[in-house]
UniProtKB/TrEMBL annotation:
Cofactor(s) needed: Fe(2+)
TM ranges: none
SUPFAM superfamilies (UniProt xref): Clavaminate synthase-like
Domain TauD/TfdA-like: 19-235
Pfam families noted in UniProt: TauD (PF02668)
Name of the protein in question: TauD/TfdA-like domain-containing protein
Record InterPro entries: AlphaKG_dependent_hydroxylases (IPR050411), TauD-like_sf (IPR042098), TauD/TfdA-like (IPR003819)
Keywords carried by this UniProt record: Antibiotic biosynthesis, Iron, Oxidoreductase
Length: 254
């Protein structure tokens, strides 16, 4: 099985792969999510299997679609609005799911049912890598990106890109780019943030039955443009087990 399209990324993501037949599957997945925030899976070949796997780890958000899963496919009816780009063949910017909401979902499961004819690789960014990259190369940008008023995603919802806690942990909130009002200081740092995202992104090529389960407070995801009738199943919700309040900051992690 080849999950990873970029050789340079293969070693960095391969250790997140889990065997769905291992006897301690649930405990193993929980430990990996608590520690690294990402699990890569293979063998979820039906919508029922995807839904059953999701229900082991999350209380899913209600969806009025078969098996309670979002079907992510190009419909031909949607345009490049921020809330519907996933239903087109266009590239999707790296983002955290529900970044415009007051309480974004904690867990996100995405599984490939039918790959694209060409393109469509998944892009992933670990918030810990992103924070560390900015701290090394652009430390002056961290202040404007960690303030409560960094961005406004709705009339009464303000949030930072990196929410730091006194306990030395962090929560990532990365919007897709549209419909967000940035503070003047943060707006001047957006180009540097984009550069840091490009430097830290990882690339994942999914075959049928393959997917990823991630901590949406830590990992951002996106995709490249594609051709064909690509179909993914997505589930999101809150964990049924204890998760730490964010990921360790770069200082704690090094």
């Amino acid at each position: 099985m080849t999950l990873l399209a970029a050789p340079a990324a293969r070693g960095r993501l391969a250790h997140h792969l889990v065997n769905l037949r291992q006897p301690d599957l649930v405990a193993s997945v929980q430990r990996r999510l608590q520690k690294d925030g990402l699990v890569v899976v293979d063998g979820l070949t039906t919508p029922r299997a995807v839904a059953s796997f999701a229900d082991r780890f999350m209380r899913r958000s209600r969806v009025d679609e078969p098996h309670g899963l979002h079907e992510i496919r190009p419909t031909g009816r949607h345009h490049l609005r921020a809330d519907s780009v996933d239903l087109t063949r266009a590239p999707m910017r790296l983002h955290t799911a529900g970044a415009r909401l007051k309480h974004p979902p904690r867990l996100l499961l995405v599984v490939c049912a039918r790959p694209a004819d060409t393109g469509g690789d998944t892009l992933l960014v670990d918030g810990q890598d992103l924070l560390s990259e900015l701290a090394r190369r652009r430390p002056g940008d961290l202040g404007p990106l960690t303030r409560r008023t960094t961005m406004r995603t709705a009339p009464r919802i303000y949030a930072p890109v990196f929410r730091l806690s006194p306990a030395g942990r962090c929560v990532l909130r990365l919007p897709s780019g549209r419909g967000v009002s940035w503070s003047p200081a943060a707006r001047r740092r957006l180009l540097n943030l984009e550069v840091a995202v490009e430097r830290t992104r990882r690339r994942l090529s999914l075959a049928p039955g393959q997917g990823y389960l991630l901590d949406n407070w830590r990992w951002a995801h996106g995709r490249l443009t594609f051709a064909g009738e690509r179909l993914l199943y997505r589930a999101e919700g809150d964990p049924t087990f204890r998760m730490p309040a964010g990921f360790p900051t770069w200082v704690e992690a090094t």
